[in-house]
Amino acid sequence: MATVALTSSGPENARRYREVMEQLGTEIRLLIPEDAGTRPTDVLMEGVGGLLLPGGPDVDPVLYGEPPDPSAGLETCRPLDDLELRLLHYALDRDMPVLAICRGMQLLNVALGGKLIQDLPGHRVVEQDGEWVSTVHLTYLSPGSKAAAIIGMAGFFRLNSRHHQGLREAQRSLRLMTTAYGVDDGLVEGLESPEHRWVIGLQCHPERQDEVPKLFANLFTAFGERADAFAQECLA
Q1: Are the C-beta atoms of 188 and 178 separated by less than 8 Å?
Q2: Is the pTM of this model over 0.90?
Q3: Which of 21, 47, 93, 196 could lock 26 by a disulfide, CB 3.0 to 4.6 Å apart?
Q4: Active site residue 102
Q5: With 0-12 CB in 10 A as exposed, 13-18 as middle and 19+ as buried, what is 129?
Q6: Exposed/middle/buried for residue 140 (C-beta within 10 Å: 0-12, 13-18, 19+)
Q7: Is 159 within 8 Å of 175 (Cβ atoms)?
Q8: For the segment 160-214, what is each residue's pLDDT rounded down to a tens digit?
Q9: Looking at 84, 102, 204, 225, which residue is catalytic?
């Protein structure tokens, strides 16, 4: 299988994503700002067949032309933003497969000219019996989307939620199409790029496999397969 680049603020934040992909036989190249921030993009991405953008800290609002809202409780990491943006543009320019999860989907939207809502109620983790657990929302996944084809069905799903930034149609990049939305609040829960063969963003956390339908594991399998195919194309 191909090598997939996985960005993260640190090794622990990347752990679940890494475990899921490595269980499928995919080699992971972990790229964090402290190690990768000053190295050339083409060196970081040499031999890579796909880019996985995971959940993590908030995207800096300056990147979409807004001042940070003092009441939003933002926790940003600008070095990570800068690293992921240059890797993402590198991948998009080459039509490399991209899987963007939670913060990753938000960053994808910002990278292509969209904006974000800096704080959203009711989507963060909540404390129950001394533990932090995901909230759950009913989400509609559109028929005809790549994500639905990969998962094996469209329709309504109860999915986990662990974020407080996000977007609705007013903030969506015009270069992306909405493929899923929250039934209760209209929040965009899925994005795909019609300009690329395999660029999929989801707001939920499918790497937490006990919190989503089992079919969502197909996303990681398909991503690994597409990354392998891309790497083989580059060698041809």
Answers
A1: yes
A2: yes
A3: 21
A4: yes
A5: exposed
A6: middle
A7: no
A8: 998 899 999 999 999 999 999 999 999 999 999 999 999 999 999 999 999 999 9
A9: 102
Whether residue 177 contacts residue 147, with contact meaning beta carbons closer than 8 Å, is answered with no
Tokens for 228?
């392998």
Catalytic one among 84, 189, 192, 207?
Answer: 207
Instruction: Quote the CA–CA distance of 125 and 123 in Å, as a whole number.
Output: 7
- Domain ranges in the chain are 3-235
Length of the chain: 236
- Phi, psi of 53, rounded to the nearest 5 degrees: -100, 110
Contact 83, 41 (CB under 8 A): no
pLDDT of amino acid 129: 67
Residues of the chain with pLDDT under 50: none
- With tokens 């690293």, the residue in question is 83
| Eight-state DSSP code of residue 183 | T
**Distance of CA 173 to CAs 112, 169, 218, Å?**
6, 9, 26
Catalytic residue among 123, 189, 205, 211: 205
Strands of 91-176 (E only): list them.
Answer: 98-101, 126-128, 131-133, 135-141, 155-161
- What are the CA-CA distances from residue 236 to residues 47, 48, 128, 233 (Å)? 13, 15, 53, 5
75 part of the active site: no
Question: What letter would DSSP give residue 194?
Answer: T
For the record, the structure tokens of 83 come out as 């690293």
Can you name the residues that pair with 20 across neighbouring β-strands?
none
Superfamily of domain 3-235: Class I glutamine amidotransferase (GATase) domain (3.40.50.880)
